[in-house]
Structure formats: structure tokens, C-alpha cells
Amino acid sequence: MNESIENLSVSNLKAPPIYRVIISQFAAAFSVALIVFVFLDWVMAYSAFIGGAVCAIPNAYFAKKTFMYTGARSTTRIAHSIYVGEAVKLLLIAAGFALAFVFVHPINIMLLFAGFITVHIVGIVAAFYLHTSYKP
């Protein structure tokens, strides 16, 4: 066991492929909008897409900010980037909803939130799948 610890260097540790979660969230936003467009109408489709984008864009920013630093010597910077990333993510979500409410007319509020929630759930499921299948 000590040999495996000694042979493990910091350079061998890789960040998980978090981009897969981000891609799955953007794909979900497009898919939900397309399905809603096919079965309902255009206003509902772009409302769902905007809700999905309000979830996916801040999450992409957070992922980029979180995995900006690596290594044991960067623990302070890593912790700081996580806190800053989460705060900015929450502000981006609030700003996204505010911009949608102010500038997008007409908008279907139920589908705006349904798109947001759907993309959020897809992100959770994708992160769980990534966690269970990722081998560093």
C-alpha cells in the first residue's frame, strides 16, 4: 500500500471531465425547447430554453472557476475560487431570471422554471454518473 502512495504524484491526478456535465445541461436545454416547440408552441419553447440557459450558463462558469487551480499547494486558491464561483453563479442566476422577466415578452413563466429545474436535475444526474464512473 505504501508503494502505491509513493508512486502517486500530483501530476498524475487529473480533474474530472466536468465538461460532460456542462454539455449534458446545454443539450438538455436544447432538447427540452425542441420537444416543447414540436408539441406546444414557440413562446413556450423559448421560455423553456431561456430557463435552461439560466441554469446551464452559471453552472458552466462555476465549473470553470472551480477547476481553475490544481495541486496541494493551491488549496487556498481552490477554496477561494469555489466560494467566489458559487457567489457569482447565484448572482448570474438571479440576473438571468431578472433579465428574462424584464426583457422577454411574451414569456411562459411555468415553462421558464420547468426548463430551469429540468436542466438542474440533468446536471445532478450527470454529475452523479460522472462520480460513479470516473477513475482518476
What is the topology?
Blueprint: H1 2-7, H2 19-39, H3 42-66, H4 75-103, H5 109-133
Helix pairs in contact: 2-3, 2-5, 3-4, 3-5
Question: What this model shows, in words?
Answer:
- With 136 residues, the protein is mainly α.
- It is built from 5 helices and no strands.
- The protein has helices at residues 2-7, 19-39, 42-66, 75-103, 109-133.
- Helix 2 runs antiparallel to helix 3 and helix 3 (42-66) runs antiparallel to helix 4.
- The chain is flat, with a radius of gyration of 18 Å.
Compact description:
The chain is mainly α and 136 residues long. The protein has helices at residues 2-7, 19-39, 42-66, 75-103, 109-133. It is flat, with a radius of gyration of 18 Å.
Number of helices: 5
Order of helices and strands: HHHHH
Radius of gyration: 18 Å
Measured by DSSP, the beta-strand proportion falls in under 5%
> Roughly what percent helix?
over 70%
Task: Tell me the number of strands.
Answer: 0
Distance between the termini: 17 Å
What ranges have pLDDT less than 50 throughout 5 or more consecutive residues?
3-9
Mean pLDDT: 88
Shape: flat
Which structural class do you get from the secondary structure elements?
A: mainly alpha
The main β sheet shows up as: none
Structural key phrases:
136 residues; flat; 5 helices; mainly alpha
